[in-house]
Amino acid sequence: MKSLSRIFAILLKEVRQLRRDRLTFGMVVGLPVMQMLLFGYAINTDVRNLKTAVADQANTHLSRQFVTELAQTQVVDIVAGADSPRQLEALLRDGSISIGVFIPHDFDRRIVDRTRAATHLLVDGSDPTILGVANQLRAMPFGFDAGDTGPVAPQVIEVRPYYNPERRTPVNIVPGLMGVILTMTMILFTAVAIVRERERGNLELLINTPVSSAELMIGKVVPYILIGMLQLALILAVGRLLFDVPVRGSIVDLYLAAFAFIAANLALGLFISTAARTQFQAMQMTVFILLPSILLSGFMFPFEGMPLVAQWLGEVLPNTHFIRLTRGIMLRDASIADLYPDVGYLLGFALVAMTGAALRFTKRLD
Amino acid sequence: MNREFAIEARGLTKRFGDLVAVSQLDLDVPRGEIYGFLGPNGSGKSTTIRMLCGLLMPSDGEAVVLDTEVPGDARRLKPRIGYMTQKFSLFGDMTVHENLQFIADIYSYPRRERAARIQELLERYNLRDQQKQLAGTMSGGQKQRLALACAVLHHPELLLLDEPTSAVDPQSRRDFWAALFRLAEAGTTILVSTHYMDEAERCHRLAILDQGVKVADGTPSELQASTGMHVIEVIASDPYHAQVVISEIPEVASVTQLGVRLRVLIPDAHSEPTRTVDAALRSAGLDAQASLSSATLEDVFVAVTLQPGRRAA
Ligand SMILES: Nc1ncnc2c1ncn2[C@@H]1O[C@H](COP(=O)(O)OP(=O)(O)O)[C@@H](O)[C@H]1O
Ligand SMILES: [Mg+2]
After folding, report:
1. pLDDT: is A107 or B46 the higher one?
2. Interface check B105 vs A, CB under 8 A
3. Which residues of B touch A2 (CB under 8 A)?
C-alpha cells in the first residue's frame, strides 16, 4: 500500500515534469513524425531516373531502338551522349552520371552472335542500390520487332514479391522504422532520467526518502510506456495516411508486441542511466545501442545475409525481434502466437534489464 | 534503549582515494538540541552529514543515529530523519505546492491530514503566495524555506541541515533560525552545518571541524572559556603596520584584522600580554591602544585551527 503510494508519487512527478519540458514533449511527437517523413520519402529503393550517358558507336537502326527501349523503362534517364568508353568513365568519375551505356560499333552482329556481350554497362559500383538496379537491367527483355534478329533469351526466373506486390519501399521500411524510432526515443528518455536527477542534485534528496530502488524504477518507467504507445499510434497513422502502409494482422497483437518492446527499451535505458555519470555519457551510450539497432536488426540489410557474428549480435538487440514481429503482424498477417519466441525474448530482456538496473542503483552516493 | 544521544559516532572516517575528508570523528549529539558543525569549505561537514544519514559508506568507524546502526539499517532510519541538502535539491520544474505534495506522497503522510499539513507549512514558512510558483524561479530565501518545509513535513525526530543559510540574506537567516528554535523546542534534534560565526553562537553545542578533524567541541561559552589564549584587542590608526609589528612578537600566536581593530592571540602561559603588545607598538612609533578582551567564537576558531607549531610558541 505504502509502496503503491510511493510509486504513484514518482509517476505523478515524472508526468508533471514531462508536461513542462517542451523539448522532451516535442521529441515525443516531433521525432516520430520527422523520421517517418524522412525515411518514407527519402529512402526509396525502387530507383528511377538514374542519370545515364550513352556512347553509341554503332548508331544503327537496332542500336537506336535499344536506347529508346532502355529510356522507356524509366529506370534510366539519358542526360548525355558520349563518344567513347573513356569519356563515359570520366562522366562516372565526376559523378555527373551513375550509368554509362557503351554500344560497340559491331552491336548488330553481337546481338545475333550472342557469344559476346552486345552492350557494356559502366556502373557506379560505389552505390549498392545502383549496382542492383543495373543487374536488373541485364535481364531486360528486348521485344525487337526486326524479325530476323530473333528473340532475346527468355526470362528464366520470374520474381513474384509476396506481401508487397507493388514493391513499394515504405511498406518494407515502416514496420522496421517503428522499431528504430521507438529504440531511439525510449532508450533516450530513461537513459537520461536518473542521470539528470543526479546532475540537478534531486537524487540526493530522493535517496534520502523511504522510496526503494525498485519503486523508483517502476515509477519512472510507467509514464514512458504510455508515451511509447502514443508514438506507435502516431507512426501507424502517418504510415497509413501518407504511405498507405497496411496493418494486415491484429492491431491488438501489434500493441502487445510493442508493449514488450517498449518495456525492454525503457529497462535498457534505465540500466544505462545507472552506469552513466553525465547526461552526455548517457546519450553516447544510447547512440552506441542505436547504431547496431539500425544496422544489425534486419532493418537496413537482410538478416540472413549478415556474417554469423553480426547475426549473433543482432539476435541480442530488442529491435531485431521487434522488426520480426512488426513485419509478421503488419505485412504477413501473422498472429502474436505464431511469433511467441520473439515476444518471449523481449519480455525476458525487459525483466533482466530492469532487475539489473534496480540492483545497480544503490541508494548511496559513493 | 532510548539513549541520551540522538547521534553517537566513534572514529568515523571517510577517505576519497588519498584524501581523508573526515578523520577519526567522535560525536555525541544530545537529543532535542541544536548542534552546530562549524568549519570552512572542504572541512568535511557535508561528508559527515552524508555518512550520518547513510548516503556515504564510512571508510572506518561507526555511527548510531536514533538508536539505528548506520549505514547498516539506514533504510529504517529514513522515515525518521529530515535532510536538507547543501545544494537546492527539490524539483525546480514543479511548483511549491507540487513539491510539498510529492514529499507528502513519498513519505506516505496520512492521506486525510495531507492537505491540512501542506497548508500549515505554507503558512508557517511564509510560502502561501508562492504556492503556484515553479520552485526553480524562487529567490534563495524562498527556496530555503521550501526546503525546510519539505524536510520537516513528515515530523522527523532528527533534522540534518547542510549549510542551510549559505545563499540567503541576513533577515531570512534570522527568520530561519527562529524557525529552528521553534522546532527544537518541540523536541526535534537538529544538526546544522555552517561557516557563519554568529550562527554557530546560537547553537546549544557545536563542533569545530578543520580539514576533516574535529579540533574542538562544547557549548559556545565552554569553547570561549577554554581557548588557552589571552585575547588582546588593538585599535590602531594604521592597522596594517600594526599587524606587521605585532606578528613579529615571538609570543604572539596569531593576529587577525577586523576593520580598524586587530585581534591578537597570545598563549595563556605568558603573563602581562597587554604590556608586551603595547611595548612593541610604542617602540615602532605607532599610534595604537591595546586592551584585554574576552574570546569570541571567531577567536576560538582561530585558536583551535592554528598550526600546531605556532600554538606551542
Ligand atoms: N565524492 C567525493 N569525491 C572526492 N572527494 C570528495 C567527495 N566529496 C567531498 N570530497 C572532498 O572531501 C573534502 C570535504 O568535503 P565536504 O565534506 O564537502 O566539505 P564541507 O561540506 O565542509 O565544505 C573536500 O576536500 C572535498 O573536495
Ligand atoms: Mg559542504
Report:
1. B46
2. yes
3. 108
Chain A touched by B79 (CB under 8 Å) = yes
Tell me: the pLDDT tens digits for A163-180? 666 556 677 788 888 999
Q: Which residues of A touch B93 (CB under 8 A)?
A: 16-17, 20-21
pLDDT at B40 over 80: yes
Of B223, B257, B291, which residue constitutes the final position of a domain? B223
Is B245 domain-assigned? yes
Q: Which of B168, B192, B223 is the last residue of a domain?
A: B223
Q: How many Å apart are CA A267 and CA A247, to the nearest integer?
A: 27
Res A148: pLDDT: 42
In this predicted structure, the answer to whether residue A255 has a pLDDT above a threshold of 90 is yes
State whether B232 and B205 are in the same domain.
no
Rounded CA gap, A121 and A102, in Å?
Answer: 6
With a cut of 90, say whether residue A8 has pLDDT above it: yes
Question: For strand B81-84 and strand B158-161, is the pairing parallel, antiparallel, or unpaired?
Answer: parallel
B46/B194 same-domain check? yes
- Half-sphere exposure of residue A330, counting CA atoms within 13 Å on the CB side? 30
CATH assignment at residue B205: 3.40.50.300
pLDDT band at B20 (very low <50, low <70, confident <90, very high): very high
The helix (H) or strand (E) run that includes residue A225 is helix A213-243
| CATH number of B290's domain | 3.30.70.100
Q: What are phi and psi of B248, to 5 degrees?
A: -85, -10
Same domain (yes/no): B114, B198? yes
Our CA-based measurement puts residue B182 at a distance from the nearest CA of chain A, in whole angstroms, of 24
Residue in B55, B88, B102 closest to A208 by CB: B55
Co-location of B107 and B158 in the same domain = yes
Do residue B165 and residue B242 come from a single domain?
Answer: no
Question: Do the Cβ atoms of B148 and B181 come closer than 8 Å?
Answer: no
Q: Mark yes or no for CB contact A9/B102 under 8 Å.
A: yes
- Judge whether residue A152 has pLDDT over 50: no
Q: Which domains, and CATH codes, for chain A?
A: 15-43+172-360 (no CATH), 50-139 (3.40.1710.10)
pLDDT at A303: 84
Whether A222 contacts chain B with CB within 8 A: no
Mutate to test the interface with B, among A10, A13, A20 (most CBs of B within 10 A): A13
Looking at the predicted structure, is the pLDDT value of residue A229 above 90?
yes
Look up cell 545475409; give the residue: A305
Q: Does the C-beta of B9 come closer than 6 Å to ligand 1?
A: no
Domain that residue B119 falls in: 29-51+74-223
CB B41 near ligand 1, within 6 Å: yes
B140 lines ligand 1 (CB under 6 A): no
> Does B249 lie in the same domain as B235?
yes
Q: Are B65 and B157 in contact (CB under 8 A)?
A: no
Report the sign of the C-alpha dihedral through residues A280, A281, A284, A286, in that order: negative
Condensed to tens digits (0 to 9), the pLDDT of residues A183-202 reads: 999 998 888 888 999 999 99
Q: Give me the interface pTM, i.e. the ipTM.
A: 0.86
Three-state DSSP class for residue B195: coil
Among the partner residues B50, B55, B93, nearest to A21 by beta-carbon distance: B93
Answer whether the bond into residue A210 is a cis peptide, omega within 30°: no
pLDDT band at A47 (very low <50, low <70, confident <90, very high): low
Out of A16, A212, A364, whose CB is closest to B98?
A16
Does a structural domain hold residue B163? yes
pLDDT of residue A306: 86
Cα(B26) to centroid of ligand 1, in Å? 19
Q: Which atom of ligand 1 is nearest to the CA of B37?
A: 22
Domain presence at residue B234: yes
